[in-house]
TrEMBL record:
<keyword id="KW-0547">Nucleotide-binding</keyword>
<keyword id="KW-0067">ATP-binding</keyword>
<dbReference type="GO" id="GO:0005524">
    <property type="term" value="F:ATP binding"/>
</dbReference>
<protein>
    <submittedName>
        <fullName>Phosphate ABC transporter ATP-binding protein</fullName>
    </submittedName>
</protein>
<dbReference type="InterPro" id="IPR027417">
    <property type="entry name" value="P-loop_NTPase"/>
</dbReference>
Amino acid sequence: ARAIASDPEILLMDEPCSALDPIATGKIEDLIDALRGKYTIVIVTHNMQQAARVSDNTAFMYLGKIVEYGKTATIFEAPKSQRTEDYVTGRFG
């Protein structure tokens, strides 16, 4: 509630569901979905399943540099970079 009190254009969420149980995680993801029409939401996460569920666009970063950016479906189903593919499929990371 405090994050949206000042009516920002962008919300930054750093691991918003870290250490939460599946029920609480689902509620947070529902909230993210409800807020997406009003705010740009940037989520930093290592949870690939969650990223695939809640995002429209995805950026994969490695060592502080963007390796690949695009529509979430493309990043997860047909990444252009081998490094991205290795990460989203769990081969490293």
